[in-house]
Amino acid sequence: MITMKSIISAGSLLLSLIAVSLAPAAVPRSEGKRGITPEDYYSFEFVTDPRISPDGKLVAFVETTIEQKQNRRHSSIWLTAADGSGRTWPFTTSPQSSNSPRWSPDGKSLAFLSSRPGVGASAAEPSRNQIYVLSMDGGEARKVTALKNGASNFEWSPDGSRFVCLSRTGPSDSRAENKDRSDVRHYAHISYKFNDTGWFDDRRSHIWVVDAKSGAARQITSGEDWNDTDPRWSPDGTKIAFVSDRTGKAFDDGRNTDVWVIPAEGGPLTKISDHDEGDGSPRWSPDGKTIAFIGRIREENHPKIWLAPSTGGAASTLAANDLDLIPSQLDWTEDGRSLYFDSGVKG
Questions:
Q1: Contact 237, 177 (CB under 8 A)
Q2: pTM
Q3: Which of 31, 139, 179, 259 is deepest in the core (most CB within 10 A)?
Q4: What class has domain 144-171+192-346?
């Protein structure tokens, strides 16, 4: 029988511990107490995205600092001993930011995202986040992807031979540059611009599968009326679960995202959730037979944890309807008998 526990995840706990250990270096302690000032912001060090190595000995995490003169943030990846007994040292030192550390299944390499230029890249080449891999034995980081619009939200396959990632694509990618092109824009949806973003382009987020050695990449989802997000490998590496609003109303104030499954080689989709409101955060059970996700039936309802067969079928809630918690950061235990999640508690 599957049970549910609301606990602070190990990653969140490690994040707190690392942040505490770095705090003295971030803001020097003065003799007397004083109030915080806006200038203190430039001394802060932000620690995020802790990832435990497969052998449990190391933690990779992202440290972000503020470069006041350059008016920017800079992120780098650091390593520290998981038991707190060892030193903390930088894993990446590029002038360009690095983030999203992901251990290979065998723990011999660490993949990450960075906009650093690849070997032989021209200065005119646009700066986009791509997947890089760096051996734990040292050496130079190897650029894996060269996707036109960059990569994001990536994950190693269970056998370490491939990556799944997101990249934005659209009709304009295949058009030749033309400085005389008209500036008239045509939009078929209500949402066409956003503050601080400006006009939306025609690119949408879709799923790509990438060979970890050769970098050969293949797009396995498509569509101009929706984004695909949160790709997750099945335990056997044959399928990928993801989230998408395929109603065609995603850019017309729609909120009806669902969980889907697609073969890793591409092919027909299997719909896993079927609620009129948003469903997301798919997580495969260790045996691959069940997908847990977070969703709600109506707008006024709290999100709940649901379980559904990974081959499709009716989903069932995992907790009582009167459970007054909003779950997030969902994950299975290794034995597949329990689920962990984070939730805010009233105070």
A1: no
A2: 0.83
A3: 259
A4: mainly beta
